[in-house]
Model the fold of this input.
Amino acid sequence: MPKLFSPRSAPAPVVPAEPEPPVLPFYRQRRMNRWAKLAVYAGLAVLCFAYGFGYARFAPFLMVPFAIPLALLAVLVIWALPSGDYAPTKALQPLYIAFFAALFVWPNYLAIALPGLPWITLLRLTGLPLLFVMLVCLSVSDQFRRRVIDIFSYDPWISRMLIAFFVLVTLSVGYSVSIGPSASRYIVAVTNWFCIFFVSLVLFSRPGFARRWMWFFISMATVVCIVGAYESRIHHVVWSNHIPSILKIEDEAVLRALSGLSRAATGKYRVQGTYGTPLGLAEFLGLVAPFAVHLILTSKTNGPRIFAGAYLMLALYVVLETDSRLGLISSLLSMLLYLLFWALLQWRRNKGSIIAPAIVLSYPAIFCVGVAATFAIGRLRAKFWGNGAQASSDQSRIEQWNIGIPKILKHPWGHGLGQSGNVLNYVGPDGIQTIDSYFLSILLEYGVIGFILYYGMFARGAWIGARTIARGNVDDELQLLMPLSICLIDFIVIKSVFSQDDNHPLAFMILGAVVALCRRADAAQGAEATAPAARRLSRSARSPRPQLQPAASGLRRETSPGRS
Done:
């Protein structure tokens, strides 16, 4: 047949091309009209122009405000990371230990000071990466988030007070009398307080970490005590003449710390070790004391006991060389409280013990005699409560409260983060602006509500730790709740007469440790409670079921005619 009359072949069907898979399947592109895109690009151009103009005008003398947009962009990038199993959780522990070591062993006033920037200290070099890794883990790992929320919500009182206090600290930057310094202090608070607390929740929930942390803590305290003992012999800071030029900071407070301190009334040199003041060193050694007592009373071998006893004697010598009353008071309080906790635990474990119930029942008399001895014995009274040489210090504290109370009543919501010293404006006899009580600092900065939230967190932490110990049935590692709870009580007592915040990261670290260990103890007790029931169920499942007997017709008793 001619081709002209041949039937026309049907055209081949057109198969639509498959769309290319997206490079990042977790993201999707939102459609925007042309005017919306133009507005976004124009606003971005204006912001970039303003940022560049401001940086050219004020840098390098004013650098901190220009870091805020970069920090917000970093937070936005972390928030936008896709979910997955690549969270860097293994990096938390080494960064945490590095921050922990830098907190005590390295003097915080030895730093790099660049024009217009905050001091580049070792704490910031370890704390900011720790905060970054923590935020990345929270952003990308759903399992990590559930774990943190589970531990954090163990005690609703602490979780609510911590959240409320964080909100209050954030708001206080806005109504601060000086926003710039408050914003700088806010970054420090987020890194050294809140981030450390949440990382502690994660790490102390791991079995074995608490004991390693305790040994590392006492080892660092031993190094600090050796440095302090050597300083007491040479009567000046050990490294004052050996600081490289890159770490020298021309600041009045730094120069005063490097020159050493002596009490004006007696001329006695006061050891300060790696801290900027003798009071900071005495506070630190008072917080370490419960762990040394814990090793002496709970260790099963003589090696740890001998080491802890030697450390206590060395620490007591350094505390005496600081010429600080709060170090002695906190050490005595630690020993008395630990004696009570240990006796309660031993009585709970061994019902036939004689020593433990004798200590518990006679504890009010022991406590009263111990406190009375510090008043009745002349040398103890001078060391614990002071004499004429400390009269000026006591009088200055009274004057500060007299000045501060009217300002607290006038602004009960506070004056802003880090502004307590400027608001109080108290100048001591040496011509230096100072504030001695952190109770007064909290009231001036965050108001009455902030005072209740801040100290309520630590008081509640000490309570739940003591409650868990009183219930008993805790293993060797969970017994660390005893010294941890005592440390929180010591911290509250010390803050009534000491305002510096050098050891505040340690307090939030201990609070997170108490919550995590209490959660572990609660889970262990729940497992022990359900184990007998599970064994009974498994035993009943393995045992053969009894055969049901058919009902016999003669089971019903027939009544005789005589008994009707």
User: Anything to note?
Assistant: Residues 89-525 form one domain. The mean pLDDT is 82.
